[in-house]
């Protein structure tokens, strides 16, 4: 097995923001630090930018040894991000980057994006007709701008053979370790993960770990009802119950909730219960049966069915990904506030639902 050359496209290098460093540093940490006891030779890392460092704006600049022509001939090309204006303002992806990516792809390089780097691959046409992902906050924009791309906002990363894309933040790290696993084998990837003090493997099909509750809203009439429901998920709840508490008819409540959250009351309750189950799996070692009871999903079989369908992994695998089996002690009388603070009204109304 050969590691090969990894070329990283450093974009907007004359005015980077602090948060642009995250995905870039992930790729550099995985592929740039030699690990001779694991594999020798390790990867040959190139940092490639579109222009030499010059006067900086409010951000900062990086000097790189290679220009974008350094992407040519690499075995793997990684785009960690695109300039913020591309995502936030709809600005064009730098044309020189697009052309360099096309040349690299045509030469047979394995093309990889982390987070918003997917916009660059899409602009170059590399994602046309393929399934791809990005951070869930940007997948709607990605799908709208590039209709030829099948955008999946529900996964950590997508491996389509010679083209791979990941969601943001730690999902990028998952994808980088996945590449090491493909190139150098599971043992090397597992040992590297241990050194980086991270889970050795999270399947790309696993759902992005985000809150499935309520979008940002200033609707003070609805928020107290939703807060109350979020604190009583272990009890049987119906649309009639919530409507009565809101002081409106069930039909009015249904329309109101759907207008504010973009989903139906029953789906909202299911998302809340899944979010509660996620929290319990992350923070306690309660048996699956108890987690299903406290989250209002009833039986363990029902929890597994919904969790696998909506989150993408079983409850057991989800728990392992977070704590490696070192959860907090079980607490049999959890219903009294769930022994961890119930979500505040601000937390409920400020949480974001993945659409």
Automatic annotation (TrEMBL):
Positions of the HTH araC/xylS-type domain: 223-321
Stretches the record annotates as Disordered: 329-355
Family matches, as Pfam families: DJ-1_PfpI, HTH_18
PROSITE patterns in the record: HTH_ARAC_FAMILY_1 (PS00041), HTH_ARAC_FAMILY_2 (PS01124)
Keyword Glycoprotein recorded: no
Keywords linked to the UniProt accession: DNA-binding, Transcription, Transcription regulation
Gene3D superfamilies: 3.40.50.880, Homeodomain-like
InterPro entries: Class_I_gatase-like, DJ-1/PfpI, Homeodomain-like_sf, HTH_AraC, HTH_AraC-typ_CS, INH-QAR
Name the record gives this protein: Transcriptional regulator GlxA family with amidase domain
Native source organism of the sequence: Streptosporangium brasiliense
């Amino acid at each position: 097995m050969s590691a090969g050359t990894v070329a990283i496209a450093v974009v907007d290098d004359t005015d980077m923001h602090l948060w642009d460093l995250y995905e870039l540093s992930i790729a550099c940490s995985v592929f740039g630090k030699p690990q001779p006891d694991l594999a020798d030779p390790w990867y040959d890392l190139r940092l490639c930018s579109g222009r030499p460092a010059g006067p900086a704006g409010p951000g900062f600049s990086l000097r790189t040894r290679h220009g974008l022509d350094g992407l040519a001939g690499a075995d793997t090309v990684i785009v960690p991000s695109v300039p913020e204006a591309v995502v936030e303002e709809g600005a064009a992806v730098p044309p020189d980057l697009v052309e360099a990516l096309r040349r690299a792809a045509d030469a047979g390089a394995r093309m990889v994006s982390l987070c918003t780097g997917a916009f660059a691959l899409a602009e170059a046409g590399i994602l046309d007709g393929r399934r791809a992902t990005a951070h869930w906050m940007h997948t709607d924009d990605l799908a709208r701008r590039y209709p030829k791309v099948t955008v999946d906002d529900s996964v950590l990363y997508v491996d389509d053979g010679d083209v791979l894309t990941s969601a943001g933040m730690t999902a990028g790290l998952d994808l980088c370790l996945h590449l090491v696993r493909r190139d150098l084998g599971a043992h090397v990837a597992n040992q590297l993960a241990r050194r980086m003090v991270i889970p050795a493997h999270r399947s790309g099909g696993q759902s992005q770990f985000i809150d499935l509750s309520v979008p940002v809203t200033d609707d003070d009439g609805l928020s107290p009802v939703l807060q109350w429901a979020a604190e009583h998920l272990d009890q049987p709840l119906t649309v009639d119950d919530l409507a009565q508490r809101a002081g409106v008819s069930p039909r009015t409540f249904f329309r109101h909730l759907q207008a504010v959250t973009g989903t139906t009351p029953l789906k909202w309750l299911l998302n809340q219960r899944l979010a509660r189950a996620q929290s319990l799996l992350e923070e306690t070692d309660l048996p699956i049966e108890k987690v299903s009871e406290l989250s209002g999903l009833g039986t363990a079989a029902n929890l597994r069915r919904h969790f696998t369908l909506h989150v993408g992994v079983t409850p057991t695998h989800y728990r392992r990904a977070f704590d490696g089996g070192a959860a907090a002690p079980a607490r049999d009388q959890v219903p009294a506030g769930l022994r961890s603070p119930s979500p505040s009204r601000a937390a409920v109304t400020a949480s974001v639902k993945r659409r």
